[in-house]
Amino acid sequence: MQLDEEIEDKFELNISITNPEKVGDGMNAYMAYKVSTQTTLPMFRSKTFTVRRRFSDFLGLYEKLSDKHTLNGYIVPPPPEKSIMGMTKVKVGKEDNSSAEFVERRRAALERYLQRVVFHPSLLQDPDVRECVCVCALSGAGFLKMINRATDSLSKMTIKMNESDVWFEEKLQEVEAEDQQLRKLHIMVDSLVGHRKELSVNTGGFAKSVAMLGSSEDNTALSRALSQLAEVEDKMEQLHQEQAASDSFCFAELLADYIRLLGSVRASFDQRMKTWQRWQDAQNMLQKKRETEAKLLWANKPDKLQQAKDDITEWEAKVTQYERDFDRVSATVRKEVLRFEKEKARDFKKQIIKYLESLLQSQQQLIKYWEAFLPEAKAIA
Amino acid sequence: MHVVLCQGLDDGPDFLSEEDRGPRAVNVDLQTDATLQVDISDALSERDKVKFTVHTKSTLPNFKQNEFSVVRQHEEFIWLHDSFVENEEYAGYIIPPAPPRPDFDASREKLQKLGEGEGSMTKEEFTKMKQELEAEYLAIFKKTVAMHEVFLCRVAAHPVLRKDLNFHVFLEYNQDLSVRGKNKREKMEDFFKNVVKSADGVLVAGVKDVDDFFEHEKTFLLEYHNRVKDASAKSDRMIRSHKSAADDINRIASTLYTLGTQDSTDVCKFFLKVSELFEKTRKIEARVAADEDLKLADLLKYYLRESQAAKDLLYRRGRALVDYENANKALDRARAKNKDVLQAETSQQVCCQKFEKISESAKQELIDFKTRRVAAFRKNLVELAELELKHAKGNLQLLQSCLGVLKGDT
Hints:
The complex is a heterodimer of chains A (381) and B (410).
Chain A: H1 2-10, E1 13-23, E2 30-39, E3 48-54, H2 55-69, H3 84-92, H4 97-118, H5 121-124, H6 127-134, H7 149-153, H8 166-216, H9 220-299, H10 302-378
Antiparallel strand pairs in A: 1-2, 2-3
Helix pairs in contact in A: 3-4, 8-9, 9-10
Chain B: E1 3-6, E2 36-45, E3 50-58, E4 67-73, H1 74-86, H2 105-116, H3 123-157, H4 165-172, H5 184-206, H6 212-260, H7 266-337, H8 341-409
Helix pairs in contact in B: 2-3, 5-7, 6-7, 7-8
């Protein structure tokens, strides 16, 4: 945590992902994104640089980081989800709204992912991260394995720990409760997005219908007012569409990110349990070796005795090592969780405020439209 | 489900606009006349029927008292409407359209489902949903009362229909009118009558009218009716989506509240504030949908029914014209054969008078219809715009003050 604040205070680091471009044709096509970095950190050779990366590069980065750091208790941010449907549409060249939306959603998600990685003080030190942002061509299309590796193992854990530190137990419960609520919330926000899109379409249908009604109305003033109403409803269609996009990008995506991140958090708790288990297993093994030695002494078999003594020494060393590992991993997990909570609080506040601001803008637009319409309605005679 | 509604004592859920209380001549701008004032002062919803208290104030000598009330059910309104339609004397008038049957089926079903699902949700969620469904029920209830009232007011405002004897019986006779719903045979007869009517309708519509006014009205009404139908259906769909979105926001608010109560950290307090905001904005969104329903959807539905009634009038005139033309031909034939001439002459005269009588009153009715329609649209569109503005401003204020607090905290 110290390092984090130091970085923020002394150095600049801005990363953005832009310019999605389709490379190639047909089923081998892929999207390449521009990764632009601007920084004053001394570890980088230049102040500004860009590279082009594709989605599987980011997956590859996650796998490398996860392999190296999860076992030490670090919370490694998960990348965005793969989507066969979404990508197929893009490959096939379907130039419609939904594939444009998909590309934009992915671009934004990759950007958030990369930002989380580089703003993690320990992960930033990893050479693979540096390679991702500033050296040309990472590994190509190879990495197509499932990304849920760390998250797979989580809830299957049946290790019963004698928890010496209640903090961990309470935290894990909190994380699980939060996960449940966030999933619920995500489903509801998705439902809202769906209904708003539906509202947009239905408003458009209604607008056209009112326009038709207006044109067959034979009172001139009323006819005019009805066509004005049709225009207002037309504008509302657009407004609802924009609002649905905001619901989705600001709110739903935030929730999806954190549901995945909580998966990584649980993975780090699992990792701690694994190291605990290894330490316990070593202690049990040491105990067995001691019993073996005792048996040999009693049975008076001096030739095998030396082996038994060697074993004991070996396992005593392991027990000490594994206990140290457990303490180290516990400390890391604790530090990581506190850091994660800070980041989460910041993220949620920022995003939700942004979302509320978009809602506010919608209302302001609404007011403009109806204020323009009111005199038209009053003019009916 | 037992809901009582009293005008004046109406303190129902305040998600309906204030304009909705008080005299409820909802979609029609009617002249209320001191000589005969009718309204529905009370209504009771029982399991499968609604009982309306019809209240009359009149200075007319036809009634025994100046003020009185009776209880009527939907079927009795239909009986009254049908008696107008079947009365040849009223062929030249636009018969005020019958109010639709009170339909609580959907609402009742939802309440039942809620009861069944009670075990699977928290107490707060259950109470909340129950309140919402009860409010929905109440809204439907208020609407059906309004629609029945508008029908009576239209009749009372019509210079000829208000004098109808059946109408007076309806208003004054304080026993059950024993109007049973149509039995199967009568429904079949109705069905065939309508089939014949539509076939005739095609025939009659094909005959070009000598009179420009009626020719124009026929073309206008056919097109207008279809377009109002479409607009009515589309407005319903739009409003339904709006309600669904408001429901979603409600659930989001609840879940945010749960998240907010899990701890007392900064971020939890943040969730609580946002939850509170969404609670309030979704109430406003629900109001917007409800107001759109009243001012737009109901307006369109009403004019769908009235334009049909106007079409029916044109049809009746068209029929009378065909009868008149046939009588003319019959007279010519009788004269040519010099057989039954007097009979043919009388018959032709009767048809002529009937046709001319209908044409004269129909013209006035159609002009009045236009005036009423323009006035009703004006009133409702103005009110709609004013309500939309009011709610948008309310929403805006909530968002602004909440954002002020949230930004200030960080």
